[in-house]
Design goal:
The complex is a heterodimer.
Chain A lengths: L6 E6 L2 E6 L4 H7 L19 E5 L7 E4 L10 E5 L18 H7 L11 H4 L7 H9 L3 H7 L8 H5 L6 H16 L4 H11 L4 H9 L2 H10 L20
Parallel strand pairs in A: 1-5
Antiparallel strand pairs in A: 1-2, 3-4, 3-5
Helix pairs in contact in A: 4-5, 4-7, 5-7
Chain B lengths: L1 E6 L1 H4 L4 H13 L2 E5 L21 H12 L4 E4 L2 H16 L1 H11 L10 E4 H9 L1 H7 L8 E4 L21 H8 L3 E3 L12 H4 L1 H17 L4 E4 L2 H8 L2 H8 L7 E3 H8 L17 H6 L4
Parallel strand pairs in B: 1-2, 1-3, 3-4, 5-6, 5-7, 7-8
Helix pairs in contact in B: 2-13, 3-4, 4-5, 10-12
Classes of the chains: A alpha+beta, B alpha/beta.
Chain lengths: 242, 292
């Protein structure tokens, strides 16, 4: 017997299509005949290319989502936002201070924010956008960076902002400042890079490269891996590759 | 340790860190922890007087909503701008339920503000929650021999709906510095305008206005001016450079936050006062008085 497919109506940019109710919006669009060249990317909810805005019957709410993640709903009325123009404050992060003056210089429009919270309401990643913009407004780089970490740059917040803020780029600036100037440098990384450059691993790598498949498999099986839930002080017995 | 929800505002997180730190530490010494809200937005900076444009009141009301949702019935702050903006917005929505309803409808699905949170200034806490007698009892280094002019500025006392003290003759800071052992001089300029935001557009206006306040304080024999507002502080302190350029005479009068005086009197040391943020260095005066 044929599996039963339940078709529901959805409206893509004003036109109605009958689509199976088990699809994501993106798959429903393809089912309806769209060949997507923009407004689709990773299909895993992380690239931010497929932001959608939609409304549902008997509600004035503007709903948001990512087309590859949001499931179709009966009579949803939708449009995809493949791209939204953002302002970009070009900068060299090394020459900037991790403080409010940097935001003032590169994104002065953040100070137009009236805390209406529309950005937060229109974020498909449930980021507290208004809060990280406010953190930037007071130079709290750490909070701005941490709150904005999950941003996929879909641009939905920017499309709705009455203060014309380019939120995602403000967030990128915050995270660049945070990573380059606020968190402590990883000293051990610099040490390791130096060891790579001075050729400490050349010999070992050459040995691996010339090994045949059987001995490679043996080496792999015999490798010393950090066990799950290893205590902090765990260290390998052999230091050859460190 | 008592706890109260605390809204620092942007200025105390940046240029007025000396106000913020000295307040947190001296309040701790009095048994009160200023518990910073985990997330907070701009207060709106200026209370909007436009009667038909409610969007400007969303920011301060949002702060009150967050305090309400965290279970607080009071929220404290120090910056005069923040205090004034939040208190006036609170007053607006309490007296006009239609406006509150409109703002709440606009903010949904965020929780609605019920109008029950009080915004209190730390000066009000000192007077009502703690009391000057208890403050006097905490003093280990009395500010003996220090003559201070307590300057209130405009926002703490006007209009009457926002006033934390008498509109014409506020005394709360005078009472405080007396409890700390200092002498309070009376200065008729105590609620004059410092020039406020003209400082951005026209330094000259501020040099005039602040110059007059400082001149008057000096005539009355004050050795420093005490303030509770970061903008007054900036206009009275940093603009002394412009006063000097204009008049050819540098006033050289130190400006102090009331919280720095508490910190010194409670023996918390000059570290929490961050005097390096001052344009006119108050340390020579304080050293001469044996206060550091």
């Amino acid at each position: 017997m044929e599996p039963k497919v339940n078709l529901i109506p959805i409206h893509i940019m004003g036109k109605q299509y009958m689509v199976p109710d088990v699809l994501t919006v993106m798959k429903a669009m393809e089912y309806a005949g769209y060949q997507l060249t923009r407004g689709c990317g990773c299909r895993g909810g992380i690239c931010g290319a497929c932001g959608i805005a939609y409304r549902l019957p008997n509600s004035y709410k503007i709903e948001v989502g990512l087309a590859c993640q949001a499931m179709v709903q009966p009579d949803m009325y939708l449009a995809v936002l493949p791209f939204y123009p953002n302002k970009r404050g070009v900068h060299d992060v090394e020459n900037l201070g991790a403080n409010v003056d940097t935001f003032k210089a590169l994104y002065p429009e953040v100070f137009k924010c009236v805390s209406c919270n529309t950005c937060t309401k229109s974020c498909p990643m449930s980021i507290e956008v208004m809060d990280y913009i406010n953190a930037a407004m007071r130079g709290d780089v750490r909070q701005a960076a941490e709150l904005s970490f999950d941003c996929v740059m879909c641009g939905l917040c920017t499309s709705r902002c009455p203060a014309e803020i380019s939120h995602a780029n403000v967030a990128i600036l915050a995270r660049r400042l945070y990573g380059s100037q606020v968190v402590p440098r990883a000293e051990h990384l610099a040490k390791q890079v130096k060891q790579v450059k001075t050729g400490k691993f050349k010999e070992g790598l050459a040995k691996l490269k010339s090994a045949d498949l059987t001995s490679l498999k043996e080496l792999y099986k015999a490798r010393e891996a950090e066990p799950d839930n290893a205590p902090d002080e765990w260290a390998p017995k052999s230091n050859d590759y460190l | 340790m008592n706890k109260i929800a605390y809204y620092p505002g942007c200025t105390l997180s940046n240029t007025a860190k000396n106000f913020d730190l000295s307040a947190r530490e001296s309040m701790k010494a009095l048994g009160w922890e200023l518990d910073e809200m985990p997330k907070w937005n701009c207060c709106g900076t200026v209370y909007s007087l436009a009667s038909d444009n409610l969007i400007n009141h969303v920011a301060p009301i949002r702060l009150l909503v967050r305090a309400q949702e965290a279970g607080h019935d009071r929220l404290t702050t120090l910056c005069s701008m923040c205090y004034h903006t939040i208190k006036m917005a609170n007053h607006l929505v309490r007296k006009d339920p239609d406006k509150l309803e409109k703002i709440n409808f606009y903010m949904e699905p965020d929780p609605a503000y019920k109008g029950k949170v009080e915004i209190v200034h730390v000066l009000e806490m000192l007077k009502k929650d703690i009391g000057f007698e208890s403050i006097r009892a905490k003093v280990v280094k009395p500010l003996n021999g220090l003559k201070l002019d307590c300057y209130y500025g405009c926002l703490l006392t006007r209009p009457k709906e926002a006033a934390l003290d008498d509109v014409e003759q506020p005394t709360v800071m005078d009472d405080l510095v007396k409890a700390l052992g200092a002498e309070a001089v009376y200065d008729p300029y105590l609620t004059e305008c410092c020039g406020s935001y003209h400082t951005v557009m026209d330094k000259d206006v501020v040099a005039d206005k602040a110059g007059r306040i400082i001149e008057s304080a000096k005539k009355k024999g004050a050795e420093a001016i005490v303030t509770s507002c970061p903008l007054c502080f900036f206009n009275l302190d940093a603009r002394q450079k412009d006063i000097a350029a204009k008049t050819g005479r540098a006033p050289g009068l130190p400006i102090l936050y009331f919280t720095q005086l508490m910190a010194l009197a409670f023996g918390l040391g000059p570290e929490v006062c961050m005097f390096d943020l001052h344009y006119v260095d108050p340390r020579p005066l304080l050293k001469a008085k044996n206060l550091m």
